[in-house]
C-alpha cells in the first residue's frame, strides 16, 4: 500500500491562465519536502499543459509523471509512464485526451468535477473521479458521480503552494511504486481517497482562497 498525491503542481505563482505552466525545480523541491513531512510515498507532478520528464530518483516521495490538460470543456489529469510533454490549452476534446492517454498506458482522472467546465458531461471514458483537496465538502457529490460513471474515486491535493501538499491523497493498493502499477491500481479500483480534516486544514483552505484572489 502506498500513499500517493495524484494532483500537485510545481509552479506556484502561475499568473498566466490559458498558458502552460512549466516545471519549476525550486517549487518541486519545496513540494517534495512538504509531501515527505506529511508521509507521502509519491506525488504526481501535474503542471498545467506541461510535463517535464524526470529520471527516477529512488527518494521519497517519488515523483510520478503527469500533466493537467486543459481540454475544450475543462481540465483532465493524465498520469502514467508516458504522458504528453506539452498540450495546447483548449485544443483537445476530452475524448481525444482520453484516447491518447490510453494509447500511452496512462490513466485519466477527472479533477474537481464541479468547479467549472463540462468535462463530466462529455461522455469520455475517464478512469477515475477526484475528490479535490480544495473542495472536500463536495466528496459526496463526487462519489455519486463516480457511481453514475462506474469508475473509482481518488483524491489529490491540487497543491499550488507547499503548505497545501497532501491535504488530500490516494491510498494505492499495489505491490510496487511505479507509474504503471499506479495506473493499474486506478483502473482496477484498488484505490481509496483520503482527505485530511481539522482546524489547520480549514485554515489552509482559507489562506489559499486569499492568495488565489490576490494573484489576479
TrEMBL record:
**Source organism superkingdom:** Archaea
| A molecular-function term among this protein's GO annotations | 5'-3' DNA exonuclease activity
Q: A Pfam family this protein belongs to?
A: PHP_C
**Which SUPFAM superfamilies does the record match to this protein?**
PHP domain-like (SSF89550)
Q: What is this protein called?
A: PHP-associated domain-containing protein
Q: Which species is listed as the source? A: Halobacterium sp. NMX12-1
